[in-house]
Specification:
Blueprint (H helix, E strand, L loop, with lengths): L1 H10 L1 H6 L32 H12 L1 E5 H19 L10 E2 L2 E2 L2 H7 L1 E6 L2 E6 L7 H15 L4 H14 L8 E5 L11 E6 L12 E3 L2 E3 L8 H29 L1
Antiparallel strand pairs: 1-7, 2-3, 4-5, 6-7, 8-9
Helix pairs in contact: 3-4, 4-6
């Protein structure tokens, strides 16, 4: 009985008997569909800009800069790679993962080495292997990529290959440190951070405020020197002005 009902439902005779005036054709719905596999890039949107290169250039020139926390993480990756390019004479880093001073993803690197070849009288996509370079060629390519990262600035490139190279000659990694600046939660301002090169001759950073109870708190104000005391006083003056502005805004909204 069950098999007969399934056969009738499959042929559509049962539906035709219910609605004889309409010709119904049973259609099997396609539940799964093929998702698009080709990546579509918007030609009107520039995916990478020279802003990260300008940050790297500023870090090499001044050895300490302040930027947002998100950019600080990216800057550390580029600065570490830049110093490694000046020290290494053989891979890593792999130069096929760098193009015009930008770090590529694995997919972009494969797409860059993708080509078509005739195999068994058919055109097929083939990923070319990375060409092996001699020591001199590798060092020259590293210098070119470092120059691209520094936007062709000769003074910064010379400092990289003289001062910084001598400083980090016996060091492998961890050339850059990040000091995050405390920021209260739900703050309208972005999270900021200091990025500096290890072993620089700059004066140490002042003691940063601590977030406690959603507000900034500065400890040991009496232990600061005169310059730092003025900084702390100005900071608290700014906090008082900020409270006054907030109260004025609230009073205007109530009116």
């Amino acid at each position: 009985m069950a098999s007969m009902l399934l056969r009738v439902a499959g042929e559509g005779t049962f539906l035709r008997s219910l609605v004889p005036c309409v010709n119904l054709i049973p259609v099997r719905f396609r539940v799964r569909r093929k998702m698009p596999s080709k990546i579509r890039n918007n030609p009107f949107v520039q995916r990478r800009t020279d802003f990260i290169k300008k940050l790297v250039l500023a870090l090499v020139q001044h050895e300490r800069i302040q930027t947002t926390d998100w950019k600080a993480q990216q800057l550390k990756k580029y600065a570490e790679l830049l110093v490694m390019l000046s020290l290494r004479r053989r891979p890593p880093p792999d130069l096929d993962m760098i193009e015009d001073g930008f770090v590529l993803t694995e997919e972009e690197s494969e797409q860059r080495r993708l080509t078509r070849r005739i195999i068994n009288r058919r055109s097929k996509k083939v990923i070319l292997p990375v060409p092996e370079l001699s020591e001199e060629e590798y060092v020259q390519r590293c210098k070119e990529e470092a120059s691209n990262m520094l936007l062709g600035n000769e003074e910064a490139l010379e400092k990289l290959y003289t001062t910084l190279k001598e400083r980090y000659q016996e060091r492998y990694g961890n050339f850059v440190t990040i000091q995050t600046i405390p920021n209260p939660p739900h703050s309208p301002y972005p999270n900021m951070a200091y990025v500096e090169l290890v072993g620089n001759s700059l004066p140490p950073l002042p003691r940063l405020p601590v977030v406690k109870g959603g507000n900034w708190v500065v400890y040991n104000r009496d232990d600061y020197e005169d310059d730092n005391k003025t900084v702390v006083k100005n900071f608290f003056k700014w906090m008082e002005r900020r409270k006054v502005i907030k109260e004025n805004v609230k009073s205007r909204k109530r009116q």
